[in-house]
Design goal:
heterodimer, A: alpha/beta, 7-stranded parallel sheet, disordered C terminus, B: 570 residues, alpha/beta, 7-stranded mixed sheet
Chain lengths: 572, 570
Amino acid sequence: MSYQGKKSIPHITSDRLLIKGGRIINDDHSFYADLYLEDGLIKQIGENLIVPGGVKTIEANGRMVIPGGIDVNTYLQKPYQGMTAVDDFYQGTKAALAGGTTMIIDHVLPEPGTSLLTSFEKWHEAADTKSCCDYALHVDITSWYDGIREELEVLVQDKGVNSFQVYMAYKDLYQMSDSQLYEAFTFLKSLGAVILVHAENGDLIAQEQKRILEMGITGPEGHALSRPEELEAEAVFRAITIASRINCPVYITKVMSKSAADIIAQARKRGPLVFGEPITASLGTDGTHYWSKNWAKAAAFVTSPPLSPDPTTPDHLNSLLACGDLQVTGSGHCPYSTAQKAIGKDNFTMIPEGVNGIEERMTVVWDKAVATGKMDESQFVAVTSTNAAKIFNLYPRKGRIAVGSDADVVIWDPDKVKTITAKSHKSAIEYNIFEGMECHGAPLVVISQGKIVFEDGNLHVNKGMGRFIPRKPFPEYLYQRIKIRNKVGGLQGVSRGMYDGPVYEIPATPKYATPAPSTKSSPAKNQPPPIRNLHQSNFSLSGAQIDDNNPRRTGHRIVAPPGGRSNITSLG
Amino acid sequence: MSQAGRRSGSRGKGHHILIKGGKIVNDDQSFYADIYVEDGLIKQIGEHLIVPGGTRTIDAHGQLVIPGGIDVHTRLQAPTMGMNSADGFFQGTRAALAGGTTMIIDHVCPDAGSSLLAAYEQWRNRADSQACCDYSLSMDIPRWHESLREELEALVKDKGVNSFLVFMAYKDKLQCTDSQMYEIFCAIRDLGAIAQVHAENGDIIEEEQKRMLELGITGPEGHVLSHPEEVEAEAVFRAITIARQANCPLYVTKIMSRGAADVLAQAKRKGAVVYGEPITASLGTDGSHYWSRNWAKAAAFVTSPPVSPDPSTAEHLSTLLSSGDLHVTGSAHCTFTTAQKAVGKDNFTLIPEGTNGVEERMAIVWEKCVVPGKMDENDFVAVTSTNAAKIFNCYPRKGRVAVGSDADLVLWNPKATKIISAKTHHSNVEYNIFEGTECHGVPTLVISQGRVVLEDGNLCVTQGSGRFIPRKTFPDFVYKRIKARNRLAEVHGVPRGMYDGPVHEVPASVRTAAPRVAPCAGKAAAPPVRNLHQSGFSLSGSQADDHIARRTAQKIMAPPGGRSNITSLS
């Protein structure tokens, strides 16, 4: 729809911008000041700024000036059965900008068996040529193969990728076992990366899908029925357990259900470093639509984990987002056209997964959380950009209005009311899962890299103008604590003397754990186990021990006792 | 020591016993009455009973008369690395009786790959010839494959086994995957049995064990460090999730940590049919002893999941047991001598796992729960016998003092005191993990199958006198709810018309899921498919049925309009 406008961009010259009379909102405080942008950076903040002539001035008239949004979860190039989602990097980032999001972090999804590096390059190239806003890339680890460690190292050291996603679902495709997760987490921690987890129990999903199909349920409601929210909660719990053993941060993508969010909230209270990302869909709508009689509509909601059919879920997730138990918002934007979704018209397991949300994210969060009084504007900035920038090590370049930061700025109008509809959205799909939702709060002007890209409802973008933003490992926001915990968590054994008592001799064929049934099945009455009396020797260590009275513990830290090595028999 | 006495004791007069003046304690009420026992059964309860001549009268004034304890978890024949545990059925059941436990449920642990039925027979043979108290058997399922279904069915239908244990730990040995557990749980639910689970995440444990050994930690403290309680809690959470999906009742054996108990309690609050079994060790001691400088002592505590190093755990578990969040107590009695434990002297992963507790169970529960006032004597009966009898379907034959029930009775003296010590216990091990614990409340007289087996501190037991107690399926206590839920859980699809819009064509080569679309990055090549379907076909906008919120329960009725066609709806 904006195909016409994209070549005739007059504003490309407006490299220098002055935003006057706005209220600047950061995640920590807000204040009135003018903002001067030049060369894609914020150059000055204050009143009565001295600026060169010929500067274009935007009157903000007391409206809010916020850092541009960061969408931490998009799939603009997700391959499925030989096709890709209908919104590619161009279409998708256009929609992002129209919604006030000036940076996306897209997921590279390599086919299992293909190299991470090759896939990364592929995505990098596609995005470089098409993306209209700044972007970074997560790399999904779809299989754990030999040589992956070297590739991960290259990605982190040379390619500017510091976040990797692992899957606990998609059995026999992307799913990793707990042992592999342990291994992957350990390695990623050593690289200083952010570990993203798609948390669903794939084994059980496979079983449930079978069962639901056997019952003759083939429609999209089967998708929700076969992925109940308990399975999401279970996987979240497990991921946190594994991460906390390794003492690494873990980030749960797509928190879709109350129970999963509650597990995260509870875990945070116990200490593990866990972060949760609800997405536009889970914050703005619910899964009752899977039961729609309109197949195409129901199919449009298919994503994994599914939207919860519990209609109180969005409210709950917004509350947790407001209180800080969940930290960032993504969109999981990965829309497929109805015709593409229809591949699964006779079998819900074949429906390509993904919903829209990149354009609606900011406004949905505002409407559900700020307009309802759950959070204030500063918290809004925190969950839509600042926290993401901190976690993924982009801060303060992104996610803050400060001198020297990138000039990704949005002038936000809290009073604007807009009805979301597929008729006017920027995505290429026929269905919008938020169809008909009336939202308070919308961007008036969006500035990306110091250029006005959205104004008065019109987009002015150039294909390929988005830059790749490399990210460094060991984001302080996560790893400061990890480093300290590493130091205090050291383990030591107890220094004891050698055990020098008798040792039972295991028969040469220990594989025969039980005596062979053939010999024993004829009831050998009263035959005592052949070994027992052998060791009822005079060797005895019963009774109270010398050290019974000093309980040695609480922390896992054991200091070598001053006495040094001791001999067991001398203690008895 | 009782070999001599076992024939002479409790012969003629032993068959008729009158217990006078005691306070009968059941799980629901207590009352004063006399009990007349004959032929191994309780024949009369009341006052001024008319009994035949020659009846032996036992004075129970000032004592409680409670149902004999049921120890729901023992491993008296556990084969580990070619060793048998130090206490066999004879030694173990003798210790049980000495502690006031008159029935045990032992675990049959078949070798991986061997037949369940063969293992069952093997256990039966041993127990029949050795056990001195009634016993029943639970079956471990070490490795799942489809053909086991028939064996499960045979065990349930013909052999009187109604509980099966699966392992989430012991990677590459006993561990089941989530899929297997789901299948097993479904099979068990259909048979009406109880699914038991050893809940620990074996994958993580293995990695942690490796790490500990690499750090040079080889002593028993490595065992507890590599089995952190989170790993137990995680597995409990997962097991409950799977059981809920399968709508199968779940019984978690050996609740050893705070985290695991809390997860279970929360799940109950959300409606899961789940039972938890703390054991003597987790109720009576803590894991600080793993750091003992005495290797043999530290090794005596090695069991899985380990006894929690958090010293407040025992307190917490006894509170949950009192509040009904945990239900039954076992002992997981599986003892190894120090020499046997020493197989792992240079590597904690080789230490055979198991602690004592069959004899101490009742006294420890009394000491930790009743003495501090957490539970009353009725609750005590519930958690030591009645609940177990209900869950495992031997109620009211066991677990209740009532006319017609088995004469398994204990005279409990709440005023007596005993100090637990390896010097006086009846197990074969050199160490008692409860060494030195003072217990206020001891069994003074124990009657099993209508015979006095413990009196004045003297045991007179008969090897092989224990009977196998077969258990029926579908215990009401557990399955009533499951059945009702089964009926409710039916889900129906949405009756829709056929989708008749355009369908994206999947290239024939793509079934392999790896689209070699363009390994050399196809520059800006618009995905070849998109525009193909931006046809006039449009279903956007609000739909006719948008306002009908269809749900809450998962039951969808067929709408009166009958079948409809998708395109006619837009």
